[in-house]
């Protein structure tokens, strides 16, 4: 083990662990210092790529915590960078637990990215799920508490799928074959498919996607910025690593890209609209992973890199509107450009980047995947992905900017009174992300030099006359279509909930609860009446001994039940207040740090 | 604030801005015509398929060749694609997917 190598997740978890002890005067600097340290730690790995660190013998397993190569590095660079931007954005939040949760979440992602074996991957996969849920719960609205529980249940199920696959895999191959490499032809075997199911659940591939638009808009204003970046992109990394070239993924990805767009077009809440566009954009990446050529995998990495920045920027814009006004529905907004001009401009830059406008980051990354599709004769996928790009520009570049910042002013008076540009740190984080979006779009080597296949990356030139002409035509004529529809008053945003596949566990779940409650209540009433008629009245006539029995035993039981119910009620109240969540964050974070440290210490002694 | 002044100026001169947009749209298509006439016979279009044809039935391949050789194809694709996507999404929403806001409240 190289002694100089420090796992970035360890820095983050350690930093999170110490955060409550930091004096208030230093807290804001500390919040920036830790992510910067993590970012620097990842950057120095670029000096010596293709190395394996942190190999630990644990029981019968050889666990690898630090597989550093060109594929893991490109994801690690952008994730650690986004951790800094996200923390800067929420820097003024005073509650330590929120920062602890987001750092633990990022450490889960980075851990999964650097994991060299399936068990380590699973460990960090679960760290991600259990820490990210707090970013939803901390919003502390009844809706977000419920959405958080649904999110957690779905991810626990996804984790179990992954674990099932891993156990079957080890059962087949033996304990020495747990390294996480490409599954190749085994991708279609039972263990391969279970692992794939666990991964594509996190990538939000339909029909396993409904958790994402359900949970992400329910998160805190800054928590959703983190959520938008890490879970799905870690899954994309895992697809590139394990399932590159699996044809099924091309179709799933293409369907996903269009599915997200169609739901986004009819969505009213801007943060949910952005969430559907995560599904759509990750669709490009899933399709790219399925194509699997050097150009396609480069495209996936580049697009994930660009996507984390512009999607973070969009969620920061949506979060700023939420944070300042408390409202995110387009039907209740409009005309805000006078009040929040900078938020408008920066969010527009995010919208143009996701739409792959020339000179913005999406242009140099998305086109790689589409080119790879056409070059490998995935012609239908190529056309459908271009069609999805139309919907992307329509929503992010046109509809949201128009109906939030221009259009008819539908704001309630209190919303209008509250609306103004957010605090400096939020604007600074958005400005940083926006600058990077433009920088990546204008200076392509900055991104292309990080990509896994350098031969293919240096041969690819996005700024060809044909590509610029094609993109400008598609995008500008989409804009023409949009303003035509505005003129015809066909696309005014309306209030409404769009039913997605989460209907099955939300409505059917309610039905199940009703079924469970109804017989139980009937039984309870029946018991109560029997007790009155056949139990209580005779008892009153019987001897003192029975009276004592009644006092001692039955009362105690009833009291006991009452106390239990009261305690349970108190706990549920705690859950509503968020006290339980706070305690749990700390417990999870501390446990993760302890496991981590003890593994390394254990390893030190074992030698 | 400078940014606000800029936006206000653009809004006051909306007619000019709209006219400018139409000019840009025309120029983009004209540029495409010139590009294709100029490139004709000189270069292979970017992204010419090299792999085996198993994923693409003939219809898609002819569409691909039309896209590469007809000037302004992508402009039509953008405009029609936008209208069709919105139409499809809206009808999907109206087909029962969009429910009242309190649909999930008990």
Q: Which pair of chains has the greatest number of interface residues, and how are they split between the two chains?
A: A-B, 57 and 58 residues
| Overall mean pLDDT of chain B | 84
Helix content of chain B: 55-70%
Give the strand line-up of the largest sheet of chain A. Answer: 1-2
- From the alpha-carbon coordinates, what is the Rg of chain A to the nearest angstrom? 26 Å
Instruction: Compute the number of structural domains of chain B.
Output: 2
Proportion of residues in helical segments of chain A: over 70%
Main sheet record of chain B: none
Please tell me what the overall shape of chain B is. Answer: flat
What is the averaged pLDDT score of chain A?
89
Series of H and E elements of chain A: HHEEHHHHHHHHHHHHHHHHHHEHHH
Task: Write up this protein.
- The complex is a heterodimer of chains A (607) and B (106).
- Chain A has a domain at 245-495.
- Helix content of chain A is 74%, strand content 3%.
- Chain A has 23 helices and three strands.
- In chain A, strand 1 (51-58) and strand 2 form a beta hairpin.
- The radius of gyration of chain A is 26 Å and the shape is globular.
- By secondary structure, chain B is an all-alpha fold.
- Chain B folds into two domains: 1-45; 57-97.
- Helix content of chain B is 70%, strand content 2%.
- Chain B has four helices and one strand; from the N terminus they run H-H-H-H-E.
- Mean pLDDT of chain B is 84; it is low at 42-48.
- At the A-B interface, helix 10, helix 13, helix 14, helix 15 and helix 20 of A face helix 1, helix 2, helix 3, helix 4 and strand 1 of B.
- Strand 3 (497-498) of chain A pairs antiparallel with strand 1 of chain B.
List keywords for this structure.
heterodimer, A: 607 residues, mainly alpha, 74% helix, B: 106 residues, flat
Give the structure's gist in a few sentences.
By secondary structure, chain A is mainly α.
